[in-house]
Amino acid sequence: MAATTMKASFPFLMLLGIAFLASVCVSSRSDQDNPFIFESNRFQTLFENENGHVRLLSKFDQRSKIFENLQKYSLLEYKAKPHTIFLPQQTDADYILVVLSGKAILTVLKPNDRSSFNLERGDTIKFPAGTVGYLVNRDDKEDLRVLDLVIPVNGPGQLQSFLVSGNRNQHSILSEFSKNILEASFNTGYEEIERVLLEEQKKETHQRRGHKDRRQQGQEESVIVKISRTEIEELSKNAKSSSKRSASSESEPFNLRSHDPIYSNKFGKFFEITSEENPQLQNLNIFVNSVEINQGSLLLPHYNSRAIVIVTVNEGNGYFELVGQRNENQQGLKEEDDEKKEQVEEEIRKQVQNYKAKLSAGDVFVIPAGHPVVVKASSDLNLLGFGINAGNNQRNFLAGGEDNVIRQIHNPVKELAFPGSAQEVDRLLENQEHSHFANAQPQERERGSLDIKDHLYSILESF
Question: Which residues, including other chains, have CB under 8 Å from residue 133's CB and lie 6 or more apart?
């Protein structure tokens, strides 16, 4: 009887681990009820023309109250065709910029200086709030794809961008100042200021000029415009390349592959730059990782102790399962219905839920801290992850040879926690000889191992 009591009170986190090992949970949800998946069509298009687009994914907390700590974070996806430039602007947000594919020139402006960088796939850099910059696709054939983690400085959901040069959709930041202020600031008459710096708004002014420049020829509302090869060559002069050896630069780009992978075998590779390694990430308390899972392989069940990870599918197709509490997509009940709210929350605490979804390029999924997750690759799969609250995070695996927290349980506790003996549990865990990544097809197992799995299923049912 004492043993039964001990098992029932065993830490909730261990039950989550058992859920993965047993591959069973309370009934699964459909994708549309899964608060952890954000399909690519959830991105909001901020701008689009024949040269490219800018799309935003924000308001994670509207899907589930578990994402309250993500209120101030957004993802910005940028795509541009060859020989194009994203015109100069500044925003009230810090950016962590990562090149997903293609080749770029990023120019960062300071009051008395400017720096240009040649960027390629995997290159990462912090773009501080208020910095003026512009981005060029320098490749002749390949589209440029960039993903930014956006952290507004003025408040959650308050992202504002300001063009240094104007267009019909959005005026220049200078155009909103009064005429006398501009004349005094530039010590020049307003007509000259308007002609040289500002987007002319009056039709008769366009007619008076008698010609149209390149921006006015079908690109009046553009923030992504064409640029010539000659102009690209001029911008690339003195541009630095990212460091492939070090990730410790305070202001220059670094590459996610600048270090050896932290996990690697024939089934996959896991690259990560932490806030402890890179000063650009340190102040934001963020890590960035890139995960490659080969077709037919698994990133084994694991959870993060502190970090909330926002994961984007860069390439390929796959599938993920995440274990959480039942009804984590619930937004909460009205305050006046406190009694019902408490009953619902108590019911939620008693149950574990399996959330699963297919993954395609452009999809995003979020892994809250403490929530075990596994990812399977249907084709070669490349994932990009931003870890929020990354300091002192520990990644704990629930299967595999290394970094497996279940292996660390004392044998007497194994006897109390699991229906099988400690020796049977150890034998089951040793069936998986690989660490971190493994074959997604289970190998033939002895009947004794299957009996343990059946026991694990029954103990989960009791919860």
Answer: 88, 89, 90, 106, 107, 108, 109, 127
Which are the contacts of 75, defined by CB distance < 8 A and separation ≥ 6? 43, 56, 57, 58, 147, 148, 149, 150, 310, 312, 364
**Beta bridge partner(s), residue 308:** 388
Query: Nearest Cα to 281, choosing from 272, 291, 293?
Result: 272
Q: How distant, in Å, are the alpha carbons of 164, 169, 231 from that of 459? A: 63, 61, 67
pLDDT for 176-212, tens place per residue? 888 898 889 889 988 888 888 875 443 333 433 444 4
Sign of the alpha-carbon torsion through 340, 345, 351, 356: positive
Residue with the two structure tokens 């595999």: 400
Report whether 224 contacts 51 (CB < 8 A): yes
DSSP designation for 261: -
- Distance, in Å, from the CA atom of 183 to the CA atom of 407, rounded to the nearest integer, reads 73
Q: Residue count of the chain, please give it.
A: 463
- Cα-to-chain-centroid distance, residue 99: 13
Q: CA distances (Å), 293 to each of 6, 121, 261, 274, 381, in order?
A: 39, 17, 13, 20, 5
Residue 80: strand pairing partners: 52, 144
pTM of the model: 0.81
- Segment 49-102, tens digit of pLDDT: 999 999 999 889 888 889 999 999 999 999 999 999 998 888 889 999 999 999
SS3 of 42, please? helix
Residue 111 confidence (pLDDT): 87
Which residue from 297, 309, 311, 462 is spatially nearest to 388, judged by alpha carbons? 309
